[in-house]
């Protein structure tokens, strides 16, 4: 292999003091092996991006940076969430390397497939998606909700790679294109497929979290899903509109029906009908307003064009 290009690993970290040493150790072994195999340049690096952690994460990153030349560190000015932190990392290194692989700090993504990512990059892929082959390590609940989420996204017409999280390779060229997507509500999994280019897939088995606990509790997961849906699809609004039209047509039909009934002398008690419709329609209206509000909120946030991340320090 004549081409030895620069690979950077970008790893968002939020309160990951328990896993960082092990992650750094295993990635160092892996990177050195890939360098020795002549697969990547010896200027390849791993970049830990601290997302305003409350524990010793940043101290550990600083220590690792001092003793290991392969380690770089970026510090976000405060907690911004996984997606923005990942973006901060990607945008900071996009001009420093030829390709980037983004991965979690907890070693859930199998690092042994890194060679395959790089191989596909050399075969001309600008984006390579890591796709999980099995969800053995997930709880039934997570499996079920994740499945439902991907199905829902598909139904909404969002192009999304099934069972792909954020373990992916992007060439620096693809990253330059990603930089043009300025939205504040960033849902990388939905945006990256919009970029196009030649893409590839690497399947891997996802491991158990090495230590510590998930930083994605149910509440964060739901808000993540909601962002994904409303930032990429207007189908919910269409759905509500359709529902509104249907209900209106039904009410006209009912009106005609009851009017005719009145003239034919059928008196209906009607109490139940009225109460049920008031509650039903009231509920629907609130739902519709809620959905519209969600989008208006998004517009409001987008128009401010606030920075998506602020970098406090870059150890390079
Ligand atoms: N993470 C982050 N900021 C947050 C929450 C999570 O940077 O506010 C990082 C976290 O350190 C990890 C990755 O995002 O490297 C994925 O989080 P986690 O492994 O907890 O999620 P799960 O794998 O359970 O979905
Ligand atoms: Mg994880």
UniProtKB/TrEMBL annotation:
Under the heading Pfam families, the entry gives: Glycos_transf_2
Which Gene Ontology cellular-component terms appear in the entry?
plasma membrane
Membrane-crossing ranges are 239-264, 270-296
Which part of the chain is the Glycosyltransferase 2-like domain? 9-178
Query: Which GO-annotated molecular functions does the record name?
Result: glycosyltransferase activity
The record ties this protein, via SUPFAM superfamilies, to: Nucleotide-diphospho-sugar transferases
According to Swiss-Prot or TrEMBL, what is its membrane topology? Multi-pass membrane protein
Query: What's this protein's name?
Result: Glycosyltransferase family 2 protein
């Amino acid at each position: 292999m004549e081409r030895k290009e620069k690979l950077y690993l970008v790893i968002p970290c939020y309160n990951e003091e328990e896993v960082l040493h092990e992650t750094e150790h295993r990635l160092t072994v892996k990177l050195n092996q890939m360098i020795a195999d002549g697969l990547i340049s010896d200027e390849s690096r791993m970049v830990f991006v601290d997302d305003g952690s409350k524990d010793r994460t940043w101290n550990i990153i600083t220590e690792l940076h001092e003793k290991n030349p392969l380690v770089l560190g970026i510090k976000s000015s405060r907690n911004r969430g996984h997606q923005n932190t990942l973006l901060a990392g990607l945008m900071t290194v996009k001009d420093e390397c030829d390709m980037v692989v983004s991965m979690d700090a907890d070693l859930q993504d199998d690092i042994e497939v890194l060679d395959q990512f790089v191989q596909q990059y050399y075969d001309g892929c600008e984006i390579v998606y890591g796709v999980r082959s099995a969800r053995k390590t997930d709880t039934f609940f997570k499996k079920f909700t994740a499945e439902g989420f991907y199905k829902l996204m598909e139904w909404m017409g969002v192009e999304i790679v099934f069972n792909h999280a954020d373990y992916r390779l992007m060439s620096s060229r693809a990253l330059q294109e990603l930089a043009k997507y300025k939205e504040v509500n960033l849902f990388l999994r939905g945006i990256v497929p919009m970029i196009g280019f030649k893409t590839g897939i690497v399947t891997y088995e996802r491991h158990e979290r090495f230590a510590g606990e998930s930083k994605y509790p149910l509440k964060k997961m739901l808000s993540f899903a909601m962002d994904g849906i409303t930032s990429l699809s207007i189908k919910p609004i269409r759905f509500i509109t359709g529902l509104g039209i249907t209900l209106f047509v039904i009410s006209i039909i009912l009106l005609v029906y009851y009017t005719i009934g009145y003239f034919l002398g059928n008196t209906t008690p009607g109490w139940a009908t009225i109460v049920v419709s008031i509650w039903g329609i009231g509920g629907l209206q609130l739902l519709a307003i809620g959905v519209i509000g969600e989008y208006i909120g998004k517009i409001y946030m987008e128009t401010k064009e606030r920075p998506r991340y602020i970098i406090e320090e870059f150890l390079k």
